[in-house]
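pinned: reference chain
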Amino acid sequence: MIKNIVFDVGKVLIDWYPFETMEQLGFSKDVMDTIRKYIFDSGEWSREDEGLMTRDELKDYFASLMPKYKENMRLFYDHATDSIRPRDYVKPLIGKLKSMGYKVYVLSNFGESAMLTGVRMGGINFLEDLDGYLFSYEIHKVKPNPEIYEALYERYELNPEECLFIDDLKENIEGARATGMDGIVFESIEQLHSELISRGIDIRL
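pinned: its structure tokens
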């Protein structure tokens, strides 16, 4: 029996538009393409999520990779969370689930600075509505590493068989299932409604 609903954050509860931010900062296409190549397509991008590098350390690292555009890169990093926006269903969805008696948690790959500026202080804070949350930087592990799921169960004394995980990435759902927690690959709020209803959880708002 499902008692706990666990959400990912990015592309499930919030959207992020980094290239919109870059356009607002007046960056050229060449600058944006360079940032995409050396930051977004880099394996180092996840180091902040893992809590292994601070934002300032990453800025210095990326600046060393793109000396021609190092000032643009630093400026982007300082404004990277400006275009984080909550999806309009977030607070009603959490409220509906809680009113139905479910506990609601978040499990997300997020760096500390991004979490603080983009979620907690960004005017879109939904953390206070939750029963708990765990961000990857706290334990230096990212999904789909089984240790991050186990850490959530341990922190809140959860039985994985009583949890349902909602994430936009198939590999993260597979990681959850490997630890005993069922999951739904999120595609849209309408699809999520159907999936939950099929499990006896009618969250239509």
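why pinned: Residues 79 and 147 are 31 Å apart (CA to CA). The chain has nine helices and seven strands.
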